[in-house]
Amino acid sequence: MSILIHLNQADPLLLESHLKAHSDCPDLRIWPDCGNMDDIDCIIVWKHDPGILNQFANLKLIASYGAGVENILSDPDLPQGVPITRFVDDTLADQMAEYMLAVILNHRLHITYYRELQAASQWRPTEFSHAKNVTILGMGELGSVSAKLLNQNGYTVSGWSRSPKNIEDITSYYGDDQLEDAVKNADYILCLLPLTPQTTNILNKDLFKAAKLGAYLINAGRGDHLNEDDLLEALYNGQLSGATLDVFKSEPLPSDHVFWRHPKIYITPHISSPTDKVQVARQILDNYARMKKGEALINQVDPKRSY
Ligand code: GLV
User: Does the CB atom of residue 239 touch ligand 1 within 6 A?
Assistant: First the structure.
């Protein structure tokens, strides 16, 4: 049997070479060169073309190349009953925590701003901001590691999640009732939620109104967490002082999108926590072997929770 690699916006050949480095790697195919489709018992996907997954009669495993699985779960032609796994790994959480710390430091210390002043040969020293209250929406693997790193760096951190979390020195808020309380003292609001029907559009005008005046938003969850018009309005009326966005409704962000030219929006191209090819290759082959032996899979997605 064979594994099919079907990646969009990621390099299938690079993943192929990392998979092939292992002696237990089965036959590999790269979309669209599937060969006999009945040979395929596992597909590795990222931003796959909807409608193709139900064409493989012997499919036994759908492995996400990344942590997010919303593209898989929202595919109307998703074959029912085929287990889905996602990539969960310390490398993702560590990179995300560094990204969050870097964005906050950049904002507090005005680093990028000085680069802009340099372009205009302007010498304009500005005080550091002392704002150090952070609220993280989403306290899964990524959120809790980011919370700890920020706390170690002197930030006062709160987290908001579906259920309460017990992490030393981190204040836990949970459930819809506590969302507004979670953000009311935050200088920085970080979104690291999974995309589910409950979290879609959660970064909206109600949340921005509940937030501390002049709070700064960092979204590294998904583009669909954000109501774009509400963000523009909150930036215009000063409710939010700025935003760094790493994820967008449509990626790559279209070149005519207003966010590119907005003076209070910083854009990074979905780089906050890239999949580590070495780790993902090993994890998928381990799950492939488990699937073959009928054993429990690692990081299997629960479609009811959407992650
Ligand atoms: C990246 O965004 C991922 O879901 O792994």
Answer: no
CA angle 88, 32, 281 (to 5 degrees): 25
Residue 184: strand, helix, or coil: coil
* Ligand 1 pocket, residue 67 CB under 6 Å: yes
Counting ligand 1 atoms within 8 A of each CB, the residue from 46, 72, 92 with the most, and so the one to mutate, is 92
- Per the confidence metrics, is the pTM higher than 0.90? yes
**Tokens encoding 104:** 């906050």
What domains does the chain contain, in order, with CATH numbers? 2-87+275-293 (3.40.50.720), 91-267 (3.40.50.720)
- Ligand 1 lined by 64 (C-beta under 6 Å): no
The preferred substitution site among 96, 246, 273 for testing ligand 1, maximizing ligand atoms within 8 Å of CB, is 273
Query: CB 223: neighbour CB atoms within 10 A?
Result: 17
* 284-306 confidence digits (pLDDT tens): 999 999 999 999 999 999 999 98
CA torsion sign, 288 to 292 to 297 to 303?
Answer: positive
274 alpha carbon – ligand 1 mean position (Å): 7
The two tokens of residue 77 are 């032609």
- Measured distance CA(75)–CA(175) in Å, rounded: 28
Q: How many CA atoms lie within 13 A of 40 on its CB side?
A: 28
Q: Is the CB of 68 under 6 A from ligand 1?
A: yes
If pLDDT is split at 50, 70 and 90, which confidence band does 17 have?
Answer: very high
